[in-house]
């Protein structure tokens, strides 16, 4: 009976020792995954681990998962050490991947998900530790914003209603569109946001209308600038604007087609370069005609 008790005591001690050893092996010390990226980008996922001072187990493997599906494995003792598992919308760049980094190429909206790194120590415990980080891929607009309804340099009187529209190309998620007047937020009641028809792959285009009454305050310096701001998450921000001139003020030199400074292409984001070129060509033609064909 005493011998049996001693055997059970030894088993308990071994179990306690094993439990104490568990949790003292390799540990994930950091996973770096960009939270938001633009579709088509190349993305590096990095995973770092550290050895325990109590039990410096060697590394057996590093694995990567999107959600619950494995797509990458690195085992140092294997030749070659890298193995890639097929997974829809995951394209691993083997040449740029290593033990610490998995390089993805050509990410798409569908690549989004929770990316988890798992490290495993070698025998006898084969203990694992992991950490996951979410990544969202966004489709940014291929054009826009563009302001329609008024041209820079157009005349306006205090009390006159001004209506302009901002068009924004399809994106996923849809762009957040806002307006400012002379750098300050436009009154909320003056803005009307209307989603347009969906574009390729279900992406939604946006149209935002600004309808305001010009005030003496806005025109106090002779002009008022209406600016459309478009933003998609933290990776895309663009603006387009139009500046209207007080009808009782002289036309500023930088506004209008035929200023003494020559042709000055519009610098607003979203303006087609070909349109700028055509405007400059029209200006050159006007100058030649005015001077009898001489320059």
From TrEMBL:
Signal peptide: 1-23
InterPro entries (UniProt xref): Ig-like_dom, Ig-like_dom_sf, Ig-like_fold, Ig_V-set
Domain Ig-like intervals: 40-119, 145-243
Alphabetically ordered keywords of this record: Signal
Source domain of life: Eukaryota
Pfam families: V-set
PROSITE patterns (alphabetical): IG_LIKE
Signal found in the keyword field: yes
PANTHER family: BEAT PROTEIN (PTHR21261), BEATEN PATH IIIA, ISOFORM D-RELATED (PTHR21261:SF15)
Protein name as catalogued: Ig-like domain-containing protein
